[in-house]
Design brief:
Elements lengths: L4 E7 L6 E6 L2 H9 L5 H5 L4 E8 L2 H12 L3 H11 L11
Antiparallel strand pairs: 1-2, 1-3
Amino acid sequence: MKKKGYFYITASKLNGVLYVGVTSDLRKRNEQHKSKTGSDFTKKYFVNKLVYFEEYDLIIDAIEREKQVKKWRREKKVFLIEKDNPEWRDLALEL
């Protein structure tokens, strides 16, 4: 069975610290970030607000997207977030 994947960006607050990640279970991963069991980086900088995500039919495609975006400058990541989510609202509430 092929595994679905998600590329996502979390933030500490509006224009705050950003974290770029990939997962096969976005809801579970988001819960891990919110409960500070996700990653040491997100725990240290309180990065737990889901501000952007893309869904892929194959996890490998989500991984490739993550690699691409991680190379971007911050300004380009912010533009990606703000084109669909200008208020930086927590999209986890809509999952």
